[in-house]
Design brief:
This protein is mostly beta strands. It has 3 domains: 2-17 and 458-693, Jelly Rolls (Sandwich); 38-246, Jelly Rolls (Sandwich); 251-446, Exo-inulinase, domain 1 (Jelly Rolls, Sandwich), CATH 2.60.120. 2% of the residues lie in helices and 44% in strands. It contains 2 helices and 46 strands.
Length: 698
Amino acid sequence: MWRRLSWILVALLALGLGEGPPPAPQGCRPYPKANYPQDSFGTPLKPGEVGGSSSPEGTPRLALDKGRARMAVDHCALRMPEAGAPRFGQVGLAYPKMERQNGRVVHFRLLPGDIQQPNGVAVGAFPEAHPADPLKGANAVALDNFDSLAGTFNLGFRGGTRPTLLPQFQTPLDVYVLLREQGAVYLVDGLKGGYYAAPPSASVLGLDQTLSFGEFYPGAHSSSTLHAHRLEHFQVRDVAAWSRWYGTAHAADRLTGASTAGLGQAEKGGRWQVRGNLKRGAQGTRADAMGGMALLEPGAPSGVLGLRVRTGARPQGVALIFRARSPRDYYAFVVSSEIAQAVRVRGGEALPLQQTQAAEFLLRQNATHHLQVIDTGSRVGPFDKGGKIRLYLDGQLAFVLGDDPQSSPEFDNADAEAGGVGFEIGEGVAGGTVLSRFEAHPREVALPDELRLPEPFFEERGDVVVASDRFDGPAGPLEARRTPVGGLAWEKRSPPDPKASLALLGNGQVQPAPPGGRSDYLLYGLRWPEAYRRFASLEATLTPPGQKGGYNAEGDCTGYTQANREKRLRAGFFFWQDAEHYLIARAFTDDSQSNASEIEWQAPVGGALDVIRRVNLGPRLCHGNPFHLRVSFDGDWAVAWVRAPGSPLEEPVQAFRWSDAFPEQPPLKIQMVGLVFSEEDSGTRLDSFTAWGSTRLR
């Protein structure tokens, strides 16, 4: 590593570019004064000073500060340091105790440090200020490890953790925990083009129908052992638009009422369409021995559904219905005392997609159960989160449709946009099952004004093309070529070996020459104009070396073969201020990680080039398959987007701040940008390069 760095240092020191004064750090924007808890983290605090302090808006902070270092506030964010071991109960920040009520929302904006390690960060409403197990008995959302690839969300539940299996990259997001008299609704938003809605909308992740502890502590708790998590905003707001018991639901009904009354009008979502003899009562709705069905049409598809079930000595089976087009066309989660099933009903004919007779997924006598559905809807591209349905009984995951085609080959994700929802009680002993608290939430909701923060996420992509090169023309050296747009000259900066170069292939691509076997990093750069030194966004299409792989039914890359064993992708972009301050973002695949790829970020640390952040992209980068990479950097914020093969959109896959890794350093002033190929790269081809500046960031 030292030898590698020495070439880069010599080359870039020779640039003769003056460092110049760094841009002033961006000022922190406080919340307006109000009578609710809030924290803008606008006043810097040294490590160890967070405990006993208050927010700039006057809310006391209750700190648990036993990590490897002490908590601090810098660059308008709380720094939650690495825990000494991968467990909670060491690092946390809570705020004074509050009362639960309908429509009260705990809201955090956070930037995850690392969620590829066991455990992560949990935010929400907790019965204790600093719980040892934050999700047990809490209305909270945790970002956690997902098969060592990326992150996922787990939800607080009465008995512990409830997995959603919903994915999340290491990008900034808002988490909202909407409390109700019983339970909570969990929502998130994030960067445009990501898995979830972007402000001013939010995606509904899941719900809890069981917890009702009256007093709670808003808080955030970390167990990360690798990188610090950052909290950027906190508030608790009472949202009038969400103040009914069902919160954000677009179809809901307690299903109670005067004895023997029909269903009639639902509390939310219109009038029930009923088949059979269903009657309301003080405890809920029941059916006679013939059973019955009820449907609502809220006007949009539902993403999260819930239903409470109370059984007698001889329970009737029950179904939670979704994606309904009619009483003869729908999906259902069916549970009885004998079997549990995921069912597709088409033309009145029921087709079981998955089923089990495991005792934990059956109705018990004289018991209370909760059925829930998480439906991610349509699937757009191979890596979209859509196309999967999760079915839960009492917080335990019973079925997943869409994850493994072999487990439910008949599942085709049909009618993903059908909006009908409802329930059915099966035949049996009259009144054997009583239903209550039916709710169905849309996949996305509009954020009320109370929850919209004054500062948007950083996702600048630029508005001025400073340089662009399609690498057309005959084969030959890239050095000294001027970009057709912008007229900037390509300069070879490393290594000094004249045999190592970047060459035009004559087909609109460039490639290292020779393709492999170099002694150090190969860097070709463009001197960045003074007018745009505070921002650059670079994009290009990269084709990893090796025989072209495909994607199998499970979505895995088939390029990890013996023939491709030594074919490595190690290419990307660099942003340069001087020999001691620069950032490299490189895409990464090889045979060391079966069916996995990465984006790695490197910078000089203590005189040597080191990896400061990385994110696992799963099989998105696959041998021989072109993918699009874009990286934006304003000297502090860095964001990477990837458009994988077959995907229609650029996905934001990682974001972090230079100040997260180097809190004592000012933002970089970009002097040069360009292309980088590590010495291990074995022939990545690159085309369609564009470098953007911004008139908004000067």
